[in-house]
Amino acid sequence: MPIQPTAKIWHNGNLIPWDKAQIHVMSHVVHYGSSVFEGLRCYGQPSGAAVFRLPEHMQRLLDSAKIYRMPMAYSLDQLSTAVVEVIEANGIAPCYIRPIAFRGYGEIGVNPKHSPVDVYIANFPWGKYVPGDAADVCISSWNRSAPNTTPSLAKAGGNYLNSQLIRMEADVNGYVEGIALDVNGYLSEGSGENLFIVRNGVIYTTPLANSVLSGITRDSILTLARHFGMPVVEQAMPRELLYIADEVFFTGTAAEVTPIRSVDRITIADGNPGPITRQLADEFIGIANGLRPDRYGWLTPVNVNVEQPVSV
Ligand SMILES: Cc1ncc(COP(=O)(O)O)c(C=O)c1O
Predict the structure, then answer these.
(1) What is the b/e burial string over 181-199, where b = at least 16 CB atoms within 10 angstroms of the residue's CB?
(2) CB distance 29 to ligand 1 below 6 Å
(3) Is the Cβ atom of 136 under 6 angstroms away from ligand 1?
(4) Does residue 38 have its Cβ closer than 6 Å to ligand 1?
(5) Which of 101, 179, 114, 95 is CA-nearest to residue 144?
(6) What is the C-alpha separation between 40 and 206, in angstroms, rounded?
(7) Measuring from atom 6 of ligand 1, which residue has the nearest CA?
(8) d(CA 112, CA 152)
């Protein structure tokens, strides 16, 4: 889906016109992938709109920058305020928000130290990421990066070269998404989603040691599962556990909670989203849309008139 331009983008403390948010072709990031970024969603509410888990996302941006020794001139509070500022300036909600920090125009060598760090925050309307009600996926022939190569806890632009290979391979073979294994052959995650399996009433997800991003939706689902008293286990898992699972689903800011219907053309249970997936997805989206109590303080209100407020 083409990006829908908005009026303003936040750049290093100022709101600039969308079309002026440009960089030089010799910027370090263009050649070496030296960016860290975030993806957040702002949801419509019965009255107004709110960003979901804003400080957690901006903290992860700061963490990603720290891993790459990228000095950030803005604090957690400043970055969080900037997100609210750009949403309110554009007056668009619901929306997706894309903060990005990268090494700009400076030197041409690999060492990024002498290339300045630029920070931008854009927002724009963005609907469903994984098409359909449930996903038909495959195991990718591409592995996730091994530990001690590119760090998976950093949400860095360069990591998404691996994601692109996974996603394109899935696409050309007629699947909507691919699941990668880690370097040891254990389940890792989708190209842009964390992975959950339900079997015999127990919820399993892959631990951070299996080369996954520390997903904020993953954390939200783990929190909700514990709230419902559902047993939750983070452990390494073999690929074939997917085939014999009762339920499988992805989580992610873009994908939200996406039920998985089949893996490698093997149907998961009867092919319909299972009861645990549905309960967790309903609670997640209910909180995000302000229809269920925000008992964890996950919502940051923004002052935007939503054309079609969420109906109770
Ligand atoms: C590789 C990868 N894993 C997992 C996720 C899910 O993370 P989150 O729930 O924080 O969006 C994403 C999305 O950002 C991702 O790109």
Answers:
(1) bbeeebbbbbbbbbbbbbb
(2) no
(3) no
(4) no
(5) 179
(6) 22
(7) 252
(8) 19
Strands (E), the chain: 8-11, 14-17, 35-37, 40-44, 49-52, 95-103, 117-124, 135-139, 177-181, 187-190, 194-199, 202-205, 232-234, 247-252, 256-263, 266-267, 299-302
Instruction: Name the H helices within the chain.
Output: 28-32, 54-67, 76-90, 159-172, 216-227, 240-243, 275-288
- Name the residue of 38, 155, 162, 182 to mutate for ligand 1: max ligand atoms within 8 A of Cβ: 155
Q: Where are the domains of the chain?
A: 8-124, 135-273
The pTM is what? Answer: 0.97
The SS3 assignment for 101 reads strand
Is 155 part of the annotated catalytic residue set?
yes
Reading the block at residue 30, the tokens are 């263009």
Q: Dump pLDDT digits (tens) for 14-53.
A: 999 999 999 999 999 999 999 999 999 999 999 899 999 9
CATH code assigned to 8-124? 3.30.470.10
- Look at residue 195 and give its three-state secondary structure: strand
Instruction: Note whether 167 and 190 are within 8 A (CB).
Output: no
CA distances from 94 to 3, 86, 127 (A): 15, 13, 9
CATH superfamily of 135-273: D-amino Acid Aminotransferase, subunit A, domain 2 (3.20.10.10)
Condensed to tens digits (0 to 9), the pLDDT of residues 241-300 reads 999 999 999 999 999 999 999 999 999 999 999 999 999 999 999 999 999 999 999 999
The total of other beta-carbon atoms located within 10 Å of residue 299's CB is 20
